[in-house]
Write a structure and sequence with these properties.
The chain is of the alpha/beta class and 351 residues long. It is built from 14 helices and 14 strands. The strands form three sheets. Strands 2-1-5-6-7-8 form a six-stranded parallel sheet, sandwiched between helices. Strands 11-10-9-12-13-14 form a six-stranded parallel sheet, with helices on both faces. A two-stranded antiparallel ribbon has the order 3-4. Helix 2 crosses helix 3, helix 4 runs antiparallel to helix 5 and helix 10 crosses helix 13. It is globular and about 60 Å long.
Length: 351
């Protein structure tokens, strides 16, 4: 089974969406499927307004049609609601092909925070986008409930995983022996990082990541350690060097960084919102509280071994299996079509 994923988030971007589909590309061949990526680099691009580190695709119908036709996919999954996603959706609608989508990002909340655009307007647009699909995949129970209440239909659960070989406890202290409270992720206004950096906490604060707020935060908080973007072992060592992972975001749909920190034995301090509510086990792998300072201090007392064990429940193998089951059920079983014959192939990441 060959699945084409249309996404506006792809390399060299570093975020949860990219990591999710990279892991799918590695896992699906073991289940008789292969993944093709239709990303921004298949089209002309321009710097994204307010976020120039991201290349925004300028897709056209002919290029998009040729790219999809060349793959000849058995199934099409649309990961994002940007220009690439919109063009792939239009392709499917013109040809009356069923497709699935994912709700990865709370854009309505981002736009409300950044530009004061009423979230109800953006949710209405996203509802129109996703409700034409055979199924929209969401990562958590609380997000499923939230979207259902907003009129989204055909919602399917699709969890995430973590590489527990890379992300594991390590005897490292990259930031010294003092207590370390660390955030990792995109450095942008919607992540609410100022709420973390403004806390009165003992020891050192560390921010791992890049984004449009980085320079402003460096100037405002000169005592904070900013590492920039890290990947691979360097990222894993940064997590493992922390005593608490502080996650101030209120706009998450899941938060893969939560699992990465937990896999390193680092407890989480976060607000009780979608993402942390579904991933963090209160009093075991983290502390959820409206008082983020209280949560961060209380998390210091949690057992790193128990924190690690909670992360081990999330595997990319299980996430890939659930994704494939969702695709097959939505696109074939529900439409009364026979399931395609699976052929085992190495993952390919189409440009």
């Amino acid at each position: 089974m060959r699945i084409l994923v249309a996404t506006d988030a792809w390399r060299p971007q570093v975020n949860g969406v990219v990591r999710t589909y990279e892991q799918l590309a590695a896992e699906l061949p073991r289940k008789g499927a292969s993944l093709e990526i239709l990303g921004p680099d298949a089209f002309r691009t321009m710097p994204c307004p307010t976020y120039p580190q991201i290349s925004l695709a300028l897709p056209d119908r002919a290029t998009c049609d040729r790219a999809i036709d060349r793959v000849r996919p058995d199934a099409i999954h649309i990961a994002t609601e940007g220009p690439v996603g919109l063009m792939a959706r239009a392709y499917c609608r013109r040809r009356r092909l069923p497709f699935t989508t994912s709700f990865h990002t709370k854009f309505p909340d981002y736009l409300a925070a950044k530009f004061a655009i009423p979230s109800s307007w953006t949710y209405a647009l996203l509802r129109h986008f996703h409700n034409s699909s055979a199924g929209v995949m969401v990562a958590t129970r609380s997000l499923r409930q939230n979207l259902s209440e907003r009129g989204f239909r055909n919602i399917m659960t699709w969890t995430r995983g973590v590489d527990t070989t890379l992300f594991r406890p390590r005897a490292v202290r990259r930031f010294g022996e003092a207590r370390v409270f660390l955030y990792a992720g995109r450095v942008a206004v919607e992540k609410n990082i100022v709420a973390f950096l403004s806390l009165d906490l003992p020891g050192r604060k560390v921010v791992v990541g890049d984004g449009p707020q980085l320079d402003m935060l460096k100037g405002r908080f000169p005592d904070v350690t900013f590492t920039g973007a890290l990947t691979g072992v360097a990222l894993a060592e940064a997590y493992a060097s922390a005593d608490v992972f502080v996650f101030p975001s209120v706009t998450e749909t899941f938060g893969i960084v939560l699992l990465e920190a937990m896999a390193c034995g680092v407890p989480v301090a976060a607000l009780p919102v979608t993402g942390p509510l579904d991933v963090v086990r209160q009093g075991v792998s983290g502390i959820l509280s409206r008082d983020l300072r209280q949560a961060a201090l209380a998390a210091l007392a949690l057992d790193p071994v128990a924190v690690r064990q909670e992360a081990e429940h999330y595997t990319w193998e299980a996430a890939a299996r659930l994704f494939l089951d969702n695709v097959e059920r939505a696109l074939f079983v529900q439409r009364g079509r026979p399931l395609p014959t699976r052929t085992y192939a190495a993952p390919t990441l189409a440009r």
